[in-house]
Design brief:
Blueprint (H helix, E strand, L loop, with lengths): L1 H21 L2 H22 L4 H17 L2 H22 L6 H39 L11 H6 L3 H12 L2 H14 L1
Helix pairs in contact: 2-3, 2-5, 3-5, 4-5, 5-8
Length: about 180
């Protein structure tokens, strides 16, 4: 039994990592939407609701959440976990509270799906910064004496500016700078 669960976990983790690193953004959102639908179906069955209707409702909520700022969704989920859950646990969770359990599913499943969709953007930002540092970090940094880079850096300041202007015209650098601005702005 444990071996089957471990094998299932390995396959699911491999599939998630493959989706995160290789799928385009639109396809990743669709795959995560399907995962949210399956999770909502199970959540609806646990709450003794119409599981198909509940899954459809949560997939629609996931689609709407993709169009609004995810910060708002994450703030609502954080407020749910900080304010509502401790009070609810203090009073006691009962199976007859199906509507409250269904609302909890909304605050658990939707932010989880949005967080997974946001992962590649964060990884792409780190990758873009590392690439920029590797390719253009030596423009203004002093290189070891005697190398061609050191002779270029030791030239007058106007030449360093010229090299920076030439580097700024590089389309790949401009693409990375735009992606960093979009991710941090």
């Amino acid at each position: 039994m444990l071996a089957a669960r471990l094998a299932t976990a390995v396959v699911l983790i491999a599939g998630l990592l493959a989706a995160l690193f290789y799928l385009p953004s639109v396809w990743l959102k669709l795959v995560i939407g399907a995962v949210v639908a399956l999770a909502a179906f199970e959540w609806g069955r646990l709450c003794r609701l119409d599981a198909y209707r509940y899954a459809g409702l949560l997939v629609a909520a996931y689609g709407i959440a993709l169009w609004i700022r995810s910060d708002v969704v994450f703030a609502l989920a954080a407020a749910f976990w900080v304010v509502a859950v401790p009070f609810w646990l203090w009073r006691g969770v009962e199976a007859r509270q199906a509507r409250l359990l269904a609302a909890a599913g909304l605050f658990v499943l939707i932010p989880a799906g949005l967080a997974v969709v946001a992962l590649p953007a964060a990884a792409g930002l780190a990758r873009a910064r590392a690439d920029l540092g590797r390719r253009y970090g030596g423009l203004l940094r002093r290189q070891p004496v005697g190398t061609p880079q050191a002779r270029a850096v030791d030239q007058p300041v106007k030449d360093v500016g010229g090299r920076c202007r030439r580097a700024a015209r590089d389309p790949e650098l401009r693409y990375h700078l735009r992606s960093i601005r979009a991710a941090t702005g």
